[in-house]
């Protein structure tokens, strides 16, 4: 489809959904399993563009990968000995997790590789990860603008002390952490400046721990990884994606409906499940179990919230704010300007189309609701723009989502699931 016109929801609904597996957990588990000794099975994996790219790269490197149960489970025979194919060009398209995680792992393991992507990927900074790996003894470089392509030239890391910026993306640190057990000696990583998206770093450590490698840290400012260590091959269950769940939580909030998210509760290792707490602050009723969360929408009020730790839900909150009374301010999210698109600028453009008054700041967005109007929403080839603004269309007639196919990146069946939840399975 070139565009998708969102069906307007005219009644409140009661529904439940189990979103697909977490992209963030899937790609972390794939890499840990690939570096393990032995055979792992990952259950509940996300099948999307981002995970397809990671799987293709691992296969290209010589890792044995087999899809089971229609792709929801993946068998991996890890290359714990580091005996990978080399002299390769690896195309990562626009998958940030793939290029950052593989850059760390391949630099530490050694070999000759070039990692490259689409034009947008060549605008996404990676120089800070490259510099950190250089300080560990790796022979690595990137383009003059500090972005991909990345070239790795064979020198294997011997470990040691390293510093890395934390304010642009936590994926740099996650890539270093997952690679560090394969270094020649223990690794200590110090964070330069504030660390964004801390829950994603905790997620990385949780996945590593499941595969047998523990990381210690001091207030998320200094991390220590024993090395050399081997990852253990295991059977691992991937949680449903909490970022994907945010769209259905927002659906409940803006339509006064009741939605239960299955498979995600207070025991989730994903920080983005805390989006439910933000909605509670806005006026929603929230009920938790260990493995589910239920939201019932009520009259919404604007909030002033620091979204640094759960920045993948910024677009969802920004759209929800259209239906609140009063101003909503989203703070401390400058780093999302370096995602699939400049998300603060894109949000400002598209929210204005729907009638909101927007104040865009370097690291924040202020949203004042106004009379709502139909619009054609540009998605900037950003999956989260498409999915979040689809929720607005449930309340605003004749909202059209351009290029809905960009959802393939993390949620290929989003619009099918949206139809099912609102009772339009046959359409």
Characterise this structure.
The chain has 427 residues and is of the alpha/beta class. It has two domains: 3-20 and 240-421, UDP-n-acetylglucosamine1-carboxyvinyl-transferase, Chain (Alpha-beta prism); 23-225, Enolpyruvate transferase domain (UDP-n-acetylglucosamine1-carboxyvinyl-transferase, Chain). Helices cover 30% and strands 24% of the residues. It has twelve helices and 24 strands. The chain has helices at 23-35, 49-60, 96-109, 127-135, 170-179, 198-210, 242-255, 275-282, 314-320, 343-353, 383-393, 414-421; strands at residues 3-5, 14-17, 36-43, 64-68, 73-79, 88-91, 112-116, 140-141, 150-153, 160-165, 187-192, 215-218, 222-225, 231-232, 235-237, 258-262, 285-288, 292-296, 304-306, 328-331, 357-360, 365-368, 375-377, 399-402. Strands 3, 4, 5, 14 and 15 form a five-stranded mixed beta sheet that branches. The chain has a four-stranded mixed beta sheet with strand order 2-16-18-17, with helices on one face. The protein has a four-stranded mixed beta sheet with strand order 6-7-9-8. The longest helix is centred in the first third of the chain and has 14 residues, at 96-109. It is globular, with a radius of gyration of 21 Å. The relative contact order is 0.14. The mean pLDDT is 95.
